[in-house]
Fold this sequence. Notes:
By secondary structure, the protein is α+β, with helices and mostly antiparallel strands. Helices cover 23% and strands 36% of the residues.
Amino acid sequence: xxxxxxxxxFQTFLPHQHFNYNVITRLKNxxxxxxxxxxxxxxxxxxxxxxxLPPRAVLxxxxxxxxxxxxxxxxxxxxxxxxxxxxxxAITLNYKNNVFSIDFAALELTNPEGARYAYQMEGFDKAxxxxxxxxxxxxYTNLSAGxxxxxxxxxxxxxxxxxxPASVTLTILPPPWKxxxxxxxxxxxxxxxxxxxxxxxxAQARQRDALALEQAEKEQIKNLNQLKLxxxxxx
Length: 235
């Protein structure tokens, strides 16, 4: 372990082993030899070098309903991956494949146990979500139809974050009854029904007007006939 006074952080270089603290010796070159339960560990502090490059996050696995998706594998009509997830820039899912997970990891780490991860689904998550190295996975369920961008970054034990997060664009397609052409069909059907309804109302109005006119003509003829009878009786 080494303490960096500049950052105030400790960095661990030795793997997690069971040490025999009664077995330790210093060599002439100031290297240390530690006894382990299953061997020994040679440690030369002069060979330590501080990690200068920021770590790089990578996407490792894509899962649907907790099952790993293979390259070229079709699930519910979707061929999700045509190449490895690291090489994939965009994924399209139909509305049935709406429960998925993305696993991630980090490269160029001398102390993986001291790493920190943060991920965000742009368009859904309002802020970055921090996780530890034991939970390097993000799961989403029932995302609404739309386009999202998943990003993940990693920090090493010095607190240096990735310069460029790993990312993939995800497009969730709407169900058939919510697509633009389905909505256009609904609008056409609605306008068609409105046209038929209005035409029916106009036809009824014309029929009422025709009946009223016919009734008025009959009434007029009746009145004329009555006038003729009166005239004949008085003449």
